[in-house]
Amino acid sequence: MSDLDRTDRAILAEIQRDGRISNARLAERVGLSETPCARRLKRLEADGYIEGYRAVLSRTALGLGVVAFCLVRFSLHDRSLANRFERDVQGLPRIVACHNVSGTADYLLQIVSRDLDDYGVFMRDVVRALPGVTSVESILSLNEVKRYVGLPLP
């Protein structure tokens, strides 16, 4: 991050707010002409500061009314078992995030479902059947207070 100047940071901030911003509008917002702005954006992409672009979808419009966090515990800590678990989780679209964590759990999953019944079936038939899982604890989100809007840029 130390090789980023103020203009690079401004570009990153703007595209986090609007990934579909035109180069002309981006250049205007960061105080550059279009060619140098496009060049900087390509460099930021090539240097790995920008991993990709995506749309933010509405859970409500898609009928996904439940967001749950699930603490997953293993009784046996075996690398091959953990690898299988992680590989299987990658193939489950309802699990929108998975973190290997420290503390009393081994993994923290973020899961979306249509409703509580749908979530219960998914937990019983899918999550509890994943390799290595010996216990799970669900934490239901009652209200999303702050949504992920991007990474902080100093």
From TrEMBL:
Which SUPFAM superfamilies does the UniProt record give? Answer: Dimeric alpha+beta barrel, Winged helix' DNA-binding domain
The chain positions of domain HTH asnC-type read: 4-65
Q: Which residues form a coiled coil?
A: none
Q: Which Pfam families match?
A: AsnC_trans_reg, HTH_24
CC per GO annotation: cytosol
Source domain of life: Bacteria
Concerning PROSITE patterns, the annotation shows:
HTH_ASNC_2 (PS50956)
Q: What are the recorded GO MF terms, alphabetically?
A: sequence-specific DNA binding
Q: Name one GO biological process term.
A: response to amino acid
Keywords in alphabetical order? DNA-binding, Transcription, Transcription regulation
InterPro entries per the UniProt record, alphabetical: ArsR-like_HTH, AsnC-type_HTH_dom, Dimeric_a/b-barrel, Tscrpt_reg_AsnC-like, Tscrpt_reg_AsnC/Lrp_C, WH-like_DNA-bd_sf, WH_DNA-bd_sf
Q: Which PANTHER family match?
A: LEUCINE-RESPONSIVE REGULATORY PROTEIN, TRANSCRIPTIONAL REGULATOR AZLB
Identification of the protein by name: Lrp/AsnC family transcriptional regulator
